[in-house]
Each structure stands twice: as structure tokens, then as C-alpha cells.
Write a structure and sequence with these properties.
- By secondary structure, the protein is α+β, with helices and mostly antiparallel strands.
- Among the domains are: 142 residues, no CATH class; 126 residues, no CATH class.
- 40% of the residues lie in helices and 17% in strands.
- The strands form three sheets. Strands 1-2-3-4-5-6 form a six-stranded antiparallel beta sheet, with helices on one face. The chain has a four-stranded mixed beta sheet with strand order 13-12-7-14.
- The radius of gyration is 27 Å and the shape is elongated.
Length: 427
């Protein structure tokens, strides 16, 4: 028995993807459904063959855009759902519902990116970064998103038809098709760049690093960046030495201005990640004890995370041993920690502590507002995105501006947008 095809609108597609688009890879158990899904995935692999794949290492990669209609308001919220939300006080009127609907789906058409990767005998499908499927073309094994249900198969059937239509249009007129995509793909689906100074000047209530940091500090930091380009070694290192370096960094930001009685180690205990691998228990004045700990530590903790935070929002002061001595590395160049880290760099330099500042030049450009900020599409998290941009643009910091109207207005007017990769016929 085949699942009846149903016309799907953007809200319904998003709902299915949100509910079933897990990135895990658990095999399906319902054989009938799996065979049905396998047939569609086999067909999708056949459909994309007229498009020339991009070759990356041993992978063949296809990427194209499909569109869905916003549809009627009932596709966004049924009458029953509206009445339930109204009873709960979450929505007040039909006008409120209209505004909510248009805020989620401001355009009549929504664009979705679909990518395929073929490696060995496996096909990987990704839809809008939120739904991922791995399909073994030889065995029919399927893993990834939960496609084991009628709704999911209706979605796959819609996707099959959408991709067939797009490929047919492309084959009929490759140049015209590429031109259409370039002219119509919304900016919020593209990568771009914008000068940070423009954001500072055009976006209301934005934090300006140059003003927050101060011109005097900015000039000092520029001198520090220039002066520390030559790496210097520390000849001796103890736990007490390390905690003293941490204290210099802490004091540079007045973290403990009301707790001057704390020792350097106690300050570290309060500020650091907590997973110190026993560093706080190392004999403080012994070079031998520190070297032994450094050599034998488990390396499963974060002893160098001297200011706790997330993956991109912590500050580290790392100690490395080489054959000639010790090296001290200061790192914390994320947008939210750059000023603190720059103050630490100035303080270490003024205390004659040899150190290496990671990403020194990008930090300096950021604090002066001279760098280019990368702009990512609306469904991409703006973390670890530097590799998406050309190296010559020296993109260090990225933003996803599409959920803030002030930012949207500015980037749409002033940003530069990278050209899209055009599809080619597969000869």
C-alpha cells in the first residue's frame, strides 16, 4: 500500500523536519516503510545525475535549491490549535495569529537547500542542515533522521517531486537556471561580509569595542601585538608561577577588586573551569613537581581554561614545554572576550612575562573595527565558520543577523555577497 501523496506547505515541511530530523544514525525497524523510503532515495540519486558533482577528496557532492509555498494560514495553525492557544492566553485574536504567521513566513515562497554526498556506496542526504539521512545504495540500509512514518514519507515524496522539477528546469536551460537562482535566492540564504565599522556606525545600540576598550588601551595593545611577534621562552615554571600569571590577567580586568585577600591560587579556583587535573594540589614552589605533573597529567581536563565559558567564549592561558624551556599561550579572541583578553595581554607585557597571543592580528583589527565580519545564512550557527570564507578576507568573527531587524536592514544595504556556485551539466 502506497502512502497517498499530499501537498505540503512550508510550515508543514518545517514541522516534519523539526520533529523527525534527528542527526543520529539509528536504523529503521519497519521493513515496509524502509523499502518505501529506499525506493525514493534510489530515485533521488538517479534524478541528480545530470548535474555535475563537485569532487572533494573521494566524495561527490551535489547541492541545489528547492522551494515550498507558504500556503494558507491553516497550514501554519489549525483552528483547533488556535482555540487551544487562545484559551491558554498565548494568543489573543485572529490579528495576533496573522502577525505571528507572517513573522515566521514573511515571504510566499521559502527556499530549502538540499545536499547529496556520494562516498563509496553510501549516499548522504541533508535537508536545510536539520535533517540528515545515510543510505547504503547496495544494501538499502537507512539511518539518520526518523523517516519511519506516513508524514515523513509524504515529505520525501514532496522532496522527490521538487528535485525532479528543479533538475528538469536546469537541464532545459543551464545558464538561465543559474541566472534565476542568482537573482532570486534570498540574501538570508547566502554568505557575505561587512566591515565591522559599518555595523558600529549603522546599527543602533551596538557595542563599539574601540569605545569600550578606550583609545589609550587600543594604542597600548597595538604596541604589544607588534612587540610580541618574536617568541620568547620562560626558563623556569612552577605552579605558583602559573597562578601568578593568572592573577596578572585577573587583576587586569578587576575581577577581584573587592577580594584582595585571595591568593593567586584561590583566584584561579574561583575563575577557572574547575577541571584542573590536580594542578591546585601540585607543590607550588617546586619546578620538579610542576614538570612531573605537566608530563603525566591525564589531559582530560581543562587546567588552562582560566576564565570559564563555552567552546568559543572562554579564555585560556596554556603552558607548553619544549626542549629549551616553557611557552605561555594566551587565547580568547571571541567577540565577547576580546577586550578582556587584550587587557590581559597588556598586563602580561607590562609585567615582562614572555607569552604568545593567539590570533593577535585578528583581535587588533576587531578592536579597531577594521576587520570584515562574516555573514552566514539564517539556518547556520555563527560558530567555527571561518572556513566558509576565502582566506584572503581574513574572516575571524561571524554573525547570523537574520533575527534582528536592525542588523537585517544594515547588512542588506551595505554587505558584500559571495557569488553562488553555479550548477554544470554532467558530461
Amino acid at each position: 500500500m502506497q502512502t497517498e501523496k499530499k501537498r505540503l506547505y512550508s510550515p508543514e515541511i518545517d514541522n516534519i523536519v523539526e520533529r523527525f530530523g534527528s542527526s543520529g544514525f539509528e536504523n529503521f525497524t519497519n521493513q515496509y516503510q524502509s523499502q518505501q523510503v529506499a525506493r525514493i532515495l534510489h530515485r533521488l540519486f538517479e534524478v541528480i545525475q545530470p548535474i555535475k558533482p563537485k569532487i572533494v577528496s573521494h566524495d561527490k557532492i551535489w547541492s541545489l535549491w528547492v522551494r515550498s509555498e507558504r500556503g494558507p494560514r491553516s497550514a501554519f495553525m489549525t483552528d483547533a490549535e488556535y482555540n487551544e492557544m487562545k484559551e491558554m492566553g498565548e494568543i489573543g485574536s485572529q490579528d495576533d495569529l496573522e502577525s505571528l504567521w507572517k513573522s515566521y513566513y514573511p515571504e510566499k515562497m521559502k527556499w530549502h537547500e538540499v545536499s547529496f554526498v556520494h562516498y563509496e556506496n553510501k549516499l548522504f542526504l541533508r535537508f536545510d542542515t536539520r535533517l540528515q539521512v545515510q543510505f547504503n545504495l547496495a544494501t538499502g540500509d537507512i539511518s539518520g533522521a526518523d523517516l519511519n512514518g506516513d508524514e515523513q514519507i509524504q515529505f520525501l515524496s514532496w522532496l522527490q517531486t521538487a528535485i525532479e522539477d528543479e533538475v528538469e528546469r536546469f537541464v532545459a536551460d543551464p545558464n538561465g537556471y543559474n541566472q534565476f537562482i542568482n537573482e532570486n535566492l534570498p540574501l538570508r540564504k547566502r554568505y557575505g561580509k561587512i566591515k565591522r565599522m559599518i555595523l558600529w556606525e549603522k546599527v543602533d545600540d551596538i557595542i563599539r569595542f574601540d569605545e569600550q576598550f578606550g583609545q589609550a588601551n587600543l594604542e597600548k595593545f597595538e604596541l604589544v601585538v607588534d612587540a610580541i611577534k618574536e617568541e620568547k621562552l620562560i626558563t623556569e615554571m612552577t605552579a605558583d608561577d602559573f597562578f601568578r600569571y593568572c592573577e596578572i590577567c585577573y587583576n587586569a580586568n578587576d575581577y577581584f577588586k573587592d577580594s584582595n585577600g585571595l591568593s593567586p591560587g584561590e583566584k584561579y579556583r574561583k575563575m577557572a573551569d574547575g577541571r584542573d587535573e590536580g594542578l591546585l594540589e601540585v607543590q607550588g614552589d617546586s619546578q620538579t613537581a610542576f614538570e612531573k605533573w605537566h608530563k603525566e597529567r591525564t589531559q582530560i581536563g581543562h587546567p588552562w581554561e582560566i576564565c570559564r565559558g563555552g567552546n568559543e567564549t572562554h579564555i585560556s592561558l596554556m603552558v607548553h614545554r619544549d626542549s629549551n624551556g616553557w611557552k605561555l599561550y594566551l587565547a580568547g579572541s571571541s567577540r565577547v572576550r576580546a577586550i578582556e583578553t587584550a587587557k590581559m595581554a597588556i598586563a602580561l607585557f607590562e609585567h615582562n612575562v614572555p607569552f604568545i597571543l593567539i590570533d593577535a592580528e585578528p583581535m587588533l583589527r576587531m578592536l579597531k573595527g577594521e576587520d570584515m565580519v562574516g555573514i552566514v545564512p539564517e539556518d547556520v550557527v555563527a560558530s567555527y565558520c571561518q572556513s566558509y570564507f576565502p582566506k584572503q578576507d581574513r574572516i575571524h568573527d561571524c554573525i547570523n543577523p537574520w533575527h534582528d531587524e536592525d542588523f537585517v536592514t544594515v547588512v542588506e544595504k551595505y554587505a558584500e555577497w559571495y557569488p553562488l556556485e553555479e550548477l554544470e551539466l554532467n558530461n
